[in-house]
Amino acid sequence: MTYIDESCLYLKEKKCAICEGVCKNDAIDLHQEAVKVEVKVGAIVLSPGYEIFDPELRGDYGYGKMENVVTSLDFERLLCATGPHEGEVLRPSDKKHPHKIAWIQCVGSRQVAPGGNSYCSAVCCTYTQKQVILTKDHDAEAECTIFHNDIRSYGKDFEPFYHRTEQLPGIRFIRSYVSIGKEIPESKNVTIRYATAEDGVKEEEFDMVVLSVGLNPPAEVEKLAAMYGIELNSHGFCKTNPVNPIETSRPGIFVSGAFQGPMDIPESVFSASGAGSQCGEFLDHRRGKLSKERIYPPEKDVAQEEARVGVFVCHCGANIGRVVDVPAVVDYCLTLDNVVYATEQLFSCATDSAHSITETIREKGLNRVVVAACSPRTLEPLFRDTLREAGINQYYFEMANIREHCSWVHSREKEDATQKAKDITRMSVARVCHLLPLQEIDLPVNRAALVVGGGIAGMTCALSIANQGHAVYLLEKDTDLGGTARRIHYTLDGMDVQAYLHDLVRKVYQHPSIHVYTDAIITEAAGYVGNFATKVKSERGVTEIKHGAAVIAVGADEYKPTEYLYGEDDRVLTQLELGEQIAKGEERLINAQSLVMIQCVGCRQADRDYCARVCCSHAIKNALKLKELNPQMEITIVFRDIRTYGFSEDYYREASNKDVKFIRYEPDDKPRVEAVEEEGRP
Fold first, then answer.
1. What are phi and psi of 478, to 5 degrees?
2. Most buried by CB count within 10 Å: which residue of 133, 445, 451, 488?
3. Are 340 and 309 in contact (CB under 8 A)?
4. Over the chain, what is the mean pLDDT?
5. What's the pTM?
6. What phi and psi values does residue 349 have, to the nearest 5 degrees?
């Protein structure tokens, strides 16, 4: 499908249609009519995504009335090389570069007001930091202010990303609720009112205001749910199985991506992989019944021909084109020996671009190809395939990495980056001229799998693989399966973890294709993809396991504090230990008059510069359970940022409504714990 921009003259006034005439592949047909197609399938994956919250519906923060108030999605387009100003950040009112920009967080999220969403949209804090960094790349002198309640940089490597943003010159993170003051008629600048503990209420003027909008359920979600017979949750997203967020309420229909609930790109990818695996498990009885072998054209022998090299230089949107002068690289390539064709492409990995490479090989008689783009790690197989489609040996291909090795690391040195891109491409051209054709051979693949780690993740993975017809060897270093889950008794939404865990262990031991090794230690690992050999010492003795693939699911260990009197006073517990005592009904704990929880112990610091992600929800879960058992208990949670992302935000609000106290502290002023005498004991 070819995307036709809504600004197209044909669609507006029926005048142009030039694109239809020049399209090489007849991919554009402006007269095409809708056709209903019936497709019979055995499983369905729903991935309709989400909608952006529209602040204009409620008139939030002057959006739609004040020209220089834009949403984060509007601003994203301004940053993009394919955007309205080709990557220049210009404000709407006068097309001038804004120097002083404010971002307002939680627009449409974490709100109980009509028209808002009570949940946290999960992605806004991090995408705002990305936009701030890119703004500073555009204008090193720009002043950027982020107004927020909590910074929720909870994903992998996101905490260092937050620190990187925080340490840029001219960046301020201000913890405050805000309101729009007014638009100044002469300049069209916008004022923001906010309050801080140090300065009280202030009103400050900004050239531009960006609203960090949250995520709504996809459009017409009720119609979609009715069509497929699935249930929605209270927020309008897909209702899923608490122990399997890939499963909908209807067997055979799975969900992935943000239709599950607000999530970022990596989690969307994880869930897509999970949905694919569960479809494979669900349809295992049909595996291989409909597959067809792909037929390529006969391969031409060009080994004795003089090298005729084609070079395709990718803009990669703004990733390369914003830094490297791509047309200059193309012109330079045309001066190189053996290069008979060179061109630029917006996205070389796009389907139409890859097809264009194949067609150009045929039309120009190319026998060597260089693509100057990104890392070969992900896209080299795609481009090799384009050579095979053109009848050329796939190993006559070379990839020049002018993104990771050039534009990304030299984003502020555009002239030098362009020269380096020329050098990298020139070296690739020189190398491709000396490449020889290679032939792939088929090797036998061991169909068994090894899963290292017998916690919930490892056992779930082992069952999925085994249910798809493969033998699985499951290794666990402890004497029992279950991992850390053996110490968890309930989840934030009330699920009985121990009941689920016992059922999972039973299924693993009863499955004929799963071989469990406990007390297992790996002593040696060797082999290559499809054929590995792992030596294991376990209760069964020393065993060599041969397998074609391995899954590492070793989990994580609880941090054992060296601070706050932990290990010195038995009244100081970790959250896991607290949960265990609650489950046991320890009277001394349940009847206590007060309890304090300290967050971010052992993380978000120099030696562990990451957010452990689960601690805030774990604390609120235990606080709510204690309030249920003893409503009079005074519970205080001392925190830096409460990171109850997604639907967990509702439980944060519930805890606050049940009089759980939340007190914020700063990293340079951590809480202090001192032992005091307790009645009846020292």
1. -85, 175
2. 451
3. yes
4. 92
5. 0.84
6. -85, -10
